[in-house]
Amino acid sequence: MGQIDLASGAEFNRKALSETAASAAGGTSWEVRMKWIRGALLASWRSFRSVAILMAGLSVLGVDAAYAKANTVPPGQKSSLHTTDIPAGTILPVRIGGLSSEKSKRGEIIKARIMQDVPLENGLKLRAGTTVLGHVIDVRPVIPGQKAALAIEFDTILQGKERIPVLTHLRAFASTLEVEFAQVPTTGPAKGDVYDWLPTVQIGGEVVYGKGGEVTNGDRVVGRSVNDGVLAQVNSKEGTKCSGDVEGDDRPQAFWVFSSDACGAYGFPTLTISHAGRTNPEGEIVLVSERGPVKIRSGSGMLLRVQR
């Protein structure tokens, strides 16, 4: 995409200043001259802003049809959901509150928030902001000869007044800092750059080329950026336990700030995922600290995956 040409705006400003200087020589008041300058600068900025908005709109319109379809509800389609509308393999990108093996109690309710619209079958979606509920299964404090651990489970989605039971496991987990870093461009804006078009790096290493741009893993295009995150097919990374598509379901899914092959813990130097909940006991996520208590700051991110 070409860069915005600021030459016309600059020329307009130079002309305005020149004419103002000429009017000053003719005895025009200082107040009138300043109003003229402010008007010229405002007109130039409005022209620049209009071009930027137009180009951003064209960029978004260029999103591939497959990804646009995944994020659209067909006319007349009901938005209500039932349990069968959330197929196995669906990715739920969520942000959670703080957890600690020192303060959390067994049975305590955990709330997480879906951070990106999650496309489902038949054009339906789980909206960003939807609540996912879980609870603390068990807490193991630090004692001599025993590592601290925290066992949790996410088993309910609140969609309006409806409670949808789900069985999920943990695919990827990232600290608050990792979540924030993934939303900051890797380069500073140059003259004429639009902030939303600058590249960012997802948790896991994939590169996003601005809002509406491609998402790449090396030389391979794996997805597309949308307004509230990323849509991509689920991929698996060699040497990890996270799988790709489930039973041929290769629809674009919501990954928010995570890579399509993100798997494991990111930004937690002493924390490991001892049990992700894929196998028995299904749905039970066990986090273990190699040193000190388990501490998870509010704002950390998770990729949950629906098993059934």
Tags for this model:
308 residues; alpha+beta
- Please trace the helix and strand order, writing H or E for each element: HHHEEEEEEEEEHEEEEEEEEEEE
Q: Which runs of at least 5 residues are low in confidence (pLDDT < 50)? A: 1-79
Estimate the helix proportion, in percent. Answer: 10-25%
> What's the domain count?
2
Number of helices: 4
The strand count comes to: 20
Describe the biggest sheet? Answer: 10 strands, mixed
* Cα-based radius of gyration, to the nearest Å: 25 Å
Q: Give the CA-CA distance, first to last residue.
A: 43 Å
Task: Please report which band the strand proportion falls in: under 5%, 5-15%, 15-25%, 25-35%, 35-45% or over 45%.
Answer: 25-35%
Write structural notes for this entry.
- The chain is α+β, with helices and mostly antiparallel strands and 308 residues long.
- It has two domains: 7-61, no CATH class; 83-181 and 206-306, no CATH class.
- 20% of the residues lie in helices and 31% in strands.
- Residues 1-79 have low confidence and may be disordered.
Task: Describe how the helices and strands are arranged.
Blueprint: H1 7-25, H2 30-61, H3 65-70, E1 91-96, E2 99-100, E3 109-114, E4 118-119, E5 125-126, E6 131-140, E7 149-159, E8 162-165, E9 168-174, H4 176-181, E10 199-201, E11 207-209, E12 214-217, E13 220-226, E14 229-232, E15 253-254, E16 264-266, E17 271-275, E18 285-289, E19 295-296, E20 301-306
